[in-house]
Protein: Large-conductance mechanosensitive channel
Organism: Homoserinimonas aerilata
Amino acid sequence: MLKGFKEFIMRGNVIDLAVAVVVGTAFTAVVNALVESILNPALGALFNAEDLKTAWIVEIPTTAGGTAELAFGAIVAALIQFLLVAAAVYFALVMPINKLKERAEAKRKAGAPEEEVPPTELDLLADIRDLLARSEAAGNATGKHAE
């Protein structure tokens, strides 16, 4: 169980994923500030409300004799916020990566030599392990033992 966990932690993907989560969290704060401080008040002003969250409120009667409020403006504000985050992710990450992939594919089709990806630490350690295992097996076959 611990061996599997160690292999999982040693992968480069875990570090990349952790960085992405931290950057994504920080970026979300920026988008939230933009939506809550600029867009919601500006769109709310169009509907004579303090902000978009307080626009389009519909009161409905309840069985207890009071009223309940349906805040349709809050839903619209959340949709706008989602669209802004999605657009930022697309234009800042997805589109540039797709362009890089297209360029690499064009180079490959044109016959340009591919850039060699350097081996990871895990690859190097696996190679060393395999070499040691072969060396030990060869020593056992000849009757010699490494000291």
The chain is about 70% helix and 5% strand. The helical segments are 2-10, 12-46, 72-109, 121-142. The chain has a mean pLDDT of 81. The chain has one domain: 2-142.
